[in-house]
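Weekly modeling sync, notes
Attendees: S.R. (lead), two postdocs, one rotation student

Agenda item 3: backlog of single-chain predictions. S.R. asked that every request posted to the team notebook include the full sequence so nobody has to chase files. The rotation student volunteered to paste the first one in as an example of the format we agreed on. Action items at the bottom.

Example entry:
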Amino acid sequence: MNCIGHTGRIEKLGDAEYRIAHGTTHMKNSTPGNGSMNERTQILIVENEPTIALDTQGRLESMGYDVPAIVSFGEDAIRKAGELHPNLVLMDMILKGDMDGVEAAGRIRARFDIPVVFVTTDAGDPRLVGVMRSEPYGCLFRPFEDMALDLAVRMALNRHRQEAALRESEKMYRLLVENAGDCVAIIDNEGVYRFMNELGARLLGGTPEDFVGKPVSEVFSEEIADLNRERVSEIIETGEGRTYEDCLNFPSGDRWFTINIQPVKDSSGNIIGTQGIARDITERKKAEEDRARAESLLKAALESTADGILVVSMDGTWTTCNQKFIDMWGIPDSIRESGDDNAALNHVLTSVAAPEKFLAEVRALYKNPERESFDTIELKDGRIFERYSHPQWLKEEIAGRVWSFRDITTRKRAEETMKAHREHLALINQILRHDLTNDLVVIQCALNLYNHSPDEECLKEISSHTEKSIKLIRRMRELESFISRHKKLQICEVRDVLEKSVENYSSIIFEITGRGRVMADDSLSSVIDNIIRNAFVHGKSDRITITTKESMGMCEVRIADNGRGIPDEIKEKVFEKGFRHGATGNTGIGLHIVHEAMESYGGHVWIEDNTPKGAVFVLRFVMVH
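Predicted structure, as returned to the notebook:
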């Protein structure tokens, strides 16, 4: 069966699930980010016509979307939505079974909060009235263009994200208001409370319900009510907020507050009330001067990192430091006890890789005490520190400088490892995109030819390229395995690995001599297998001789075949990633794996000519005697 815009074979997966099979594996019950390298938008198709469903699947996938499943019953749609949690559901209004698309969509949205875009052919369908009342995320009328489909999907996803963000914002706002530790109230222009949080009501001796709807004059004295009216009038006139300090009388006694009052505006920008946020500063008022220096020091410490911390006063003596700082820089007890910053600086300079640059930055900051600074420092022993510095403020004056040091050596090494891993993944992605696309184009062309004029050669061509694609995927899996399993090297018996590898090639006559122990890992078998496969597939070899011996203090393994040989001009190029040669050239990955593995083993690999014909792959390993 053929679908518009997509050619493939229809497979029935269940009572009401279908998919297109065209050489690429479709994972059932997959979820975004679970077992795939790329997280793409997943769309569940609910359609009672398999042909239309598969055509829609092909069009969506050509746009870059994933279609994890296709169902035709409303009950199955609800079940699949719960299993797969797709980003969006494309829902036909008319489904198989007793449940229609409108009911199924309502249940999916209620249970799983998944956006639904309806699809229908009849613009006069009475169900559309119910659809519009449910505020759908979109509705498509067949027939529709790809652009309309893509636009409907994008608009639905965007609206769903915005709604989710709005709900989260409202939730966070209420959570913030109720847990901020401040009293919050909203008063309209008539002086009536329209909102009060729990803390504010508790200070007044009640609950929010006791005060919402009451005028300020019934809650506070007339004097305070008059003062509030004056402030509100000022804010309405200027349109700007104000902050005040007031002493208010509560059942529990007098309390000092800073009260920030801001205008509340409607969607047209008109001021419809004011919001007041009152913070209790009673204790601060009582001990403000005594605690000023301690609060400044605490604030400076909290604003810096919790690693190696040093605080230096304006006169060049240490105010405080933590043990982490002492340990990171190896500061002697004599310098710590004296608190002499110059002596400490001279000691630190002996440890950094670029002392002149380090000292220049320190002097620039001391010369400009208001400046902040952030940079990275390399030490002679290989460690890497982040250095952050900012001034310590006491009221409106700079009292000193805070230095913070963080050891990021492990993180930097991890970043280098991740960079190498990303390069490998990029290589895999590049090969898969190129080779699979070519094979699929050939398969599609062969199918088109077969549809017009059935010919066995077309089927053979399809089978050949399908098998080639499957082999490519297996080779990519092998490369992924090599990357993930590349662990610390261990002692390996070369003979055992060789004998295990040749078992996979019954049509080749092998002669294996010699033994040796080398430093390698579990990927050594992949190295040997790639060389033998290269000789068999590209060299057309039917006899291979493998010798192991000691040479120049290393273990040398020579794998000699009787095949076509390798021209001198490409002997070095064959190890480059993606290099291909001749009609049998495949992904260019196998020998690249060999080269990368040998480099990681601390060894080498090269190619020589065999006599009278063929090629010799020479592997040299670090030998274990």
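Discussion: group reviewed the output briefly. The radius of gyration is 37 Å.
Action items: rotation student to repeat for the remaining queue; S.R. to check formatting next week.
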